Amino acid sequence: MPKYLRYSLVLAGGLLLAYLVWSKLGRVDDDTSLPAQPQPEITFFEVGNPGAAVRLVGIQPYMQPADYATGPRFYQRLNDYFTTATQRGLLPAGAVVVLAEHVGTWLVAAGEKQAVFANPHSQEALRLVVLSNLPSFVRAIWRSSAHDKVTAALFLMKARQTAAIYEWTFKKLAADYQVTIVAGSVVLPDPVVKDGHIVPMGNKLYNASFVFTPDGTIEPAVVRKQYPIDSELPFCEPAGGTLPAFNTAAGRLGIAICADSWYPPVYEQLRTAGVEVMAVPSYSTPDSLWATPWQGYNGAAMPDDVRPQDVGNITEEQAWLRYSMGGRAAAAGVRYGINVFLRGQIWDLGDDGRTIVYYEGNTYLAIPYDGPQITVVRY
């Protein structure tokens, strides 16, 4: 072998070894690697007959990057809300608990370098995730057929870990508190429930929600977002098929993930399924969005029943009340519903939104609060 080739191989081997060492350094390997994250005080909001049982509970979580560092940290952050609700008598066995859209999505950062959680900028933080997992990332790039292959590959390469932490967390919470949980949503490739476990099956990503029962098992039907918005479409697929319905102690339940709650065909599916109770996990960004002029539908065509003059002339908040669950649930025969938004400081992504409750033809807005909030509905 020529001397220059031997030197080249030695150099390449040295660089590879150096990369492998660097990629492992500074990773969060336990719950003491990062400082505890302070949380704002939890607030509460109630709707319904004061003498009736609590049937629906909406948990507006306040999430920060470090809450996604490990499975135990993610569980502990959410468990704090469940514990608080239980201590106040607001979480009886059999209740349906609804969490926010994308509450599980950022588990894509679990187990990564401490610098990922310290960096305030999402693009820089996620770039470090990619660089720390280059071999897996390259394989995922080749698998992806998405328009935005970089973002898609990020979620593809971490899918099994994300699904495992998400599943373990919500199985435990559902069983420990004996409640049904609509576990917000999580981005996964072609997820199915097989032999009682969430299994990523393919290469196309979906924004999906799962229902966990009071005995700690998962309902086999997966709810996939049918109308991804513009920011999701480059890497998330629109779901086909029909939305499933679930029998719960609170009534027959249907789930519309965020933007899905704005489209009449979704309500026709709920009506056909005999849904009485509606859950809407949501996420609004950027900060202070709800006070700004509404920019209209995005991701899919505006339905025929929407007034074009409303675009730019009503606020985002008013549009949510007019064209989402509050303005459409009655047509589907829905009696009760709750719409919960993700809040927090998840890098620089921003957030906004207030919990919306639909109660026998009336719509209620929770008090505005940029922090964790628990909303209960009695009937």
Kindly describe this structure:
The structure is a single chain. This protein has 379 residues and is of the alpha/beta class. It has a single domain (36-378), classed as Nitrilase/N-carbamoyl-D-aminoacid amidohydrolase. Helix content is 30%, strand content 22%. The chain has helices at residues 3-24, 71-87, 114-118, 122-131, 134-143, 149-157, 159-177, 264-272, 316-323, 325-328; strands at 43-48, 54-60, 62-63, 96-98, 180-182, 186-194, 197-209, 211-212, 223-224, 245-248, 251-255, 277-282, 336-341, 343-344, 356-359, 362-365, 373-378. The strands form four sheets. It has a six-stranded mixed beta sheet with strand order 1-17-2-4-5-8. It is globular.
Which CATH architecture would you pick? 4-Layer Sandwich
What is the name of the CATH superfamily?
Carbon-nitrogen hydrolase
The pLDDT mean sits at 94
> Residue share in helices?
25-40%
Report the CATH C-level class: Alpha Beta
N-to-C SSE string, H for helix and E for strand? HEEEHEHHHHHEEEEEEEHEHHEEEEE
Number of domains: 1
First-to-last CA distance = 81 Å
- Spatial order of the strands forming the largest sheet: 1-17-2-4-5-8
Structural class: alpha/beta
